[in-house]
Amino acid sequence: MITIHVTDRDGTRASHTIPVGEPLMFALRDDAGLPVEGACGGNATCGTCHIMLTPEWMDRLGAPQDYEQAMLDMLEHRNETSSRLACQITVSDGLDGIELRLGPEE
Q1: Residue 29 in contact with residue 38, Cβ under 8 Å?
Q2: Rounded CA gap, 16 and 18, in Å?
Q3: Which ranges in the chain belong to alpha helices (H)?
Q4: What gap in Å lies between CA 8 and CA 10, rounded to an integer?
Q5: Do 25 and 17 form a contact (C-beta atoms < 8 A)?
Q6: pTM passes above 0.70
Q7: N- or C-end of the chain: fewer Cβ atoms within 10 A?
């Protein structure tokens, strides 16, 4: 289990303990109970799990794959320096303490 720090769409910041080994999208939605839809089931084809990371975490995760970047490019509220899709990030011990913000609903 790791701890993540999430700022919700209404600006509320909370810490959540989530399990490792699954996509971050499922942990946000199912384990933390946050309003993350994940309509495509984690296939990077809908953008409903859009999150924004702090710069230090973007550097740690590296650049998104081409298919994820293509979906991000279609989002109206994308931020070139902080946007990622939570379905494409696997929760690992290395993410302990990650700071993120839920992206606006598209």
Answers
A1: yes
A2: 6
A3: 24-26, 55-61, 66-74
A4: 5
A5: no
A6: yes
A7: N
